[in-house]
Design brief:
The complex is a heterotrimer.
Chain A (H helix, E strand, L loop, with lengths): L1 H21 L3 H25 L5 H25 L33
Helix pairs in contact in A: 1-2, 2-3
Chain B lengths: L1 H18 L4 H20 L13 H27 L8 E6 L5 H13 L3 E7 L2 E6 L8 H14 L5
Antiparallel strand pairs in B: 1-3, 2-3
Helix pairs in contact in B: 1-2, 3-5, 4-5
Chain C lengths: L1 H28 L3 H27 L3 H30 L35
Classes of the chains: A mainly alpha, B mainly alpha, C mainly alpha.
């Protein structure tokens, strides 16, 4: 049954790859890429069972995290053209923004939470 | 302080599950790593109700099964839509009201909406959610009201 | 007992494969990026979820099952955030959702990240 599941995963990846190649916008491609990544995670897990090597699950776990970060990174690059950009287009810090401030606006007492 | 202990416990459990080696050296590395992580979180001031929401754990056990059932139902609905020979999509942007009082509650509600296929949260302004729905006419608000009520219950008392 | 476990894991794996293939078909069939997100959400939630739970049922209660459920938790936490990020980026990039009225294409002069100038409502109005 693992063979059937992996075949379904591969066919699904092929279909989504068509969408990644067809486009038409960059967002379609990113979405397809993210989807292929999710399928890859599941495929790694299924292949681990197919080969009787459950250690593959660690790879799947790592890939799940990399896939998410990769999607966000590509989206940020598309939107700002620069991975190091401030997340606001004008680079402005919103008024009253203090790193680490609590929701009521007070700064935490360092070390004595 | 309580939350620091909770966070340390969760991180260390993750370490043990992922490594599953019980030599003194590796367990010691695990303890030290988790202590450093908790210390950094403390210095960043992120040990609050939002970042370490341990007060939700008990209620989450009731919420998650309901959410999974909702996800299953809407999956079947979208699957029928896609497999129908004639594509009957009627997408549009609809607006939902969110009654949660904290950002964490709104985050959970928005993610629950996105997790159920057929609705994707595209923007949040205050308590107004902008949601893209694949079939406008199927959104009568009753299901979303139900989900909204449950997330508000899950959230519990609002943060001070 | 053993037979029940086998049948249950079979059912879960095949059900997951069904939702996965349907979602992939939706990615090809649906008219624009916003509607495709619903299909992508289908593979991320029920497709991946049922397959991973099926593997866990097949495996029985041990460490591997805990890791499988950990993978599922990560997937279910990250997938709505990624979907929302795509939706938000597409909206701020000037794309407007396809509607039955045929508005489909990008806003005037928006452009954004459209990379080959094709209509975003490619596939046109469903027949």
């Amino acid at each position: 049954m693992f063979v059937v599941t992996s075949a379904a995963l591969l066919v699904g990846m092929g279909l989504v790859m068509c969408r990644a190649l067809l486009g038409p916008t960059a967002y379609d491609r990113v979405l397809a890429l993210n989807n292929i990544g999710t399928k890859t995670v599941v495929l790694i897990a299924v292949l681990g069972f197919l080969n009787g090597r459950p250690e593959f699950l660690d790879l799947a776990l790592a890939y799940a995290l990399i896939n998410f970060i990769g999607t966000i990174a590509v989206l940020k690059y598309i939107e700002y053209g620069d991975l190091g950009a401030d997340s606001r287009p004008d680079g402005a810090v919103p008024e009253g923004f203090r790193p680490g401030a609590r929701s009521d606006g007070s700064l935490p007492d360092r070390g004595a939470t | 302080m309580n939350r620091a202990v909770w966070l340390w416990g969760i991180l260390f459990a993750l370490w043990v599950v992922l490594s599953w080696h019980f030599t003194t050296l590796l367990l010691g590395f695990g303890v030290a790593t988790c202590v450093i992580a908790v210390w950094v979180a403390m210095r960043m001031g992120t040990l609050d109700r939002e970042s370490v929401p341990v007060h939700l754990i008990l209620r989450a056990f009731a919420y998650v099964p309901w959410l999974v059932w909702e996800i299953f139902k809407s999956n079947v609905r979208v699957a029928r839509l896609i497999l129908a020979p004639r594509l009957r999509v009627d997408p549009s942007i609809v607006h939902f009201f969110a009654s949660q009082r904290t950002d964490l509650g709104r985050f959970i509600y928005a993610n629950s909406i996105t997790l159920t296929p057929g609705t994707v949260t595209t923007g949040i302004v205050g308590d107004d959610f902008e949601v893209h729905a694949i079939v406008q006419s199927e959104i009568d608000g009753s299901e979303e009201n139900d989900m909204n009520r449950r997330v508000t219950w899950l959230e519990g008392e609002a943060a001070p | 007992m053993e037979q029940t476990v086998t049948v249950l894991s079979w059912a879960l794996l095949l059900g997951g494969a069904f939702f996965l293939l349907t979602g992939s078909l939706g990615m090809v069939r649906l008219p624009d990026v916003f509607t495709r997100m619903h299909a992508a959400g289908m593979t991320d939630t029920m497709g991946a979820g049922m397959i991973v739970v099926g593997l866990a049922v097949y495996n029985g209660a041990d460490l591997v099952t805990v890791r499988l459920l950990l993978i599922l938790a990560f997937l279910w936490f990250t997938s709505p955030i990624a979907t929302h990020a795509v939706a938000k980026a597409a909206l701020s990039g000037g794309l407007r959702p396809y509607t039955l009225g045929g508005v489909g294409a990008a806003a005037d002069g928006g452009g954004g990240a459209r990379d080959d100038g094709a209509e975003s409502a490619e596939g046109g109005v469903p027949s």
